[in-house]
Hints:
InterPro entries: Lambda_DNA-bd_dom_sf (IPR010982). The chain is mainly alpha-helical.
Amino acid sequence: MSEDSERLAKALIELREAEGLSVTELALRTTLSVATIKVHESDLGRLPTPFAARRFEEVLDWAPGSIPTLPQEPTDPEPPPDSGAVTG
């Protein structure tokens, strides 16, 4: 588990315990799935997507951009060179 994912996991668990929230209640509060909450509270060590990170920052009252995220994939990738795609 990376330091960043460990820090996030600990913060989420501490928040839930301090406020007496279930995983389901935290999922509702963040608009994320129960599975997403469980992954980020576990020892899998994954970084969240940018959307999930923003939701976690809001619920944890952390500064925007304070949670490192997975790189975003391009939404409209260009075809690889020599792919046979017709252009122009």
